[in-house]
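In this supplementary section we document a worked example of the pipeline. Step one takes a protein sequence of length 479 as its only input; no multiple sequence alignment statistics are reported here. Step two produces a three-dimensional model, which step three serialises into structure tokens for compact storage. The input and output of this example are shown verbatim.
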Amino acid sequence: MAELHDLTALEQLERLRRGEIGPADLVEHYLARIERFDSGADGLGAFVEVTAPAARERAAALLEQPRALALWGLPSADKDLVDRAGVPTRYGSRAFADHVPESSDELVETLDAAGAISLGKTSTPEFGMPSYTEPLSGRPARNPYDPALGAGGSSGGAAVAVAAGLLPFAPGSDGGGSVRIPAAATGLVGLKPSRGRIPASPGFTNLGGLGVAGPLARTVTDAALLFDAMIGDGRLDYATSAPSWDGGAYLNAAVRGEGRFQLGVTTSSPWETAYELIVEPEAQDALRVAREHLDAIGHGLEEFRLEPEDGYAPAFTTLWQGGAAGIRIEGEQFDQVEPLTRWLVETGRRLGARELAAALGWLTKYERRVIRQLSRFDAVLTPTLAMTPRPIGWYDAEDAMRNFAQQVQYTPFTSFVNVTGLPAITLPVHVTETGLPMGVQLIGRPGAEHVLLAIGAQLERRLNWHDRHPPQWRDGAAA
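The serialised model returned by step three reads:
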């Protein structure tokens, strides 16, 4: 007999609107699963804060709200980088262990207005800087498919919660791959929108315009459902926005899944001139599976390589350090942050204005060069990760520069998409011989999320990845 978490988010929403279930039913179902699989030292580490009383109160209050709201009654959670008034927000750091914000971020308000119910805060690495989620401030986010492995980051807790059936979907944020990386590691769909697409997290408010919010979900339609809600009314308080799409809601594009497109295929990375990169066989297998199915569907496929860019590694590293320089830690707080954070912040604060301006200028020109290279394709296919999910403790906790290099080697295909502001989606097309999910990345033209969702829906129909689940899915037994 199917349980509530067996239903997609869209199916749950339809039952809510028909009155077959109520918001409180979903809240209690997911809170019970969180208690069972996420609590205690041996739990999955998806949540850093569970707000059960507030969730129950919110479920009751929603009965007075219109059921036509985009996410009416659907549980979700806030990444622990996002402020919700009255709920501890620690940013994954011991330095903010007692921080309780007095106001909420705009993304929280947008999802609340859509009718979602937050069950708490999902785990993130310290200040969201690393691509893995093993903060010293709390538990690591464990991969539901093998708890000895990590879930990636920085939206690692959100990915674990969705993959293990603790939430139907969850918002994340992506400044260098932080939605796509954990999605690939845990068998999910993860969408990084175009810069300027989501008004509550447009990508213009952080250095270099790297970071945007995006959805994590088990299906393409669920990702589109949450994506539409994150966009909200679409009014952007900036002069620049992503190119508009005339087809209406993105859920429509995902449901229809129509079109044949010309796709580029590459395993090249702008990091390859500075680091030794090895695309492991499992990542190559995922790319092969995607190519075979895309070819069978009727898409055109053409291999190509990005032009080598010796300046990318130093420019991006400077930008990453410069962004870290603004983290609000001073004095004795430095004793409470992790070595990687301390290195990034201290190095960033030593940067001169000329050095930072040069890096920003170089990356702006790089953005234009890459978009021109990709312009002959409707989308570009790459691996999402170069390796299988990494063991917990694999990253060097003391040597910050080696740690940074390890992150590049694990995920060399994601950060340049943030630099260029392009949309990209991770799709869980493959499972290794040992049962680990492996994903591929599709990179779209500016503002072309609808194309990525359509192609993703086509692959999902053939591969049925929504039927794959980790052991926790069915009462703790293998599904």
